[in-house]
Amino acid sequence: MNQINWSKPMQDYDYLWPGIAAALLAFLFPVYWLSEFLSGIDGLSQSVSHNIQTLSLSDAIFVVLALLTIYVYLSLRRILNDQLNFKKVDILIYLMIAVNIIFLSTIFFDIWTSIASDHSFRVVEPTLVTLAIAIGVGSLIVAGILDILLAIILLRSSTELPLIWRVFAVLTLVQGVFELSVIFHFVVIIVFPASLMVLAAAFLRKPESVELV
């Protein structure tokens, strides 16, 4: 009697939710940051000060973006491990997650100012604004360095990796360069969603068995 292999269909859908998450993040990321850039046209300090004074829908989207990013990075590590036996970038991915958690922590500024008195906020406003900007710029620079290192490691193994991962590595390298430049970081609004769509395609494609040493 023939035995039905029920595990194979399930394996094909192991990365369905990561694929959906990556695609959703690719859509929400540019929408959120474009609106933030446009609202900050009067100046960075004024924009940050206004942003941390209230809790709004944009703050909820900010949290969702950060959580989706963390989930996608964890799924990236898992698929590289499971399907390609590629574990060289595990530490880098964990560091990327740590950077996102630190950046996400700035939401507590908004929470505190929403419950603090106006006087208390005015006293600490310059410190909060400076700290929020420092965390944002610092996170951007560290993320750029990590993205470049991730891309270099992937590209060094490019002959052994499927094409889709090479495309992802190139986009990640470009993203890292613009993040590291700080001045031209707005280009990431285009590059990051593009790399996410490639990553979503990688999540949703049929698994390949590639053994890397």
From TrEMBL:
Keywords, sorted A to Z: Membrane, Transmembrane, Transmembrane helix
Regions crossing the membrane: 15-35, 55-76, 88-109, 129-154, 161-178, 184-204
Name of the molecule in the record: DUF4386 family protein
Phylogenetic classification of the source organism: Bacteria, Pseudomonadati, Pseudomonadota, Gammaproteobacteria, Arenicellales
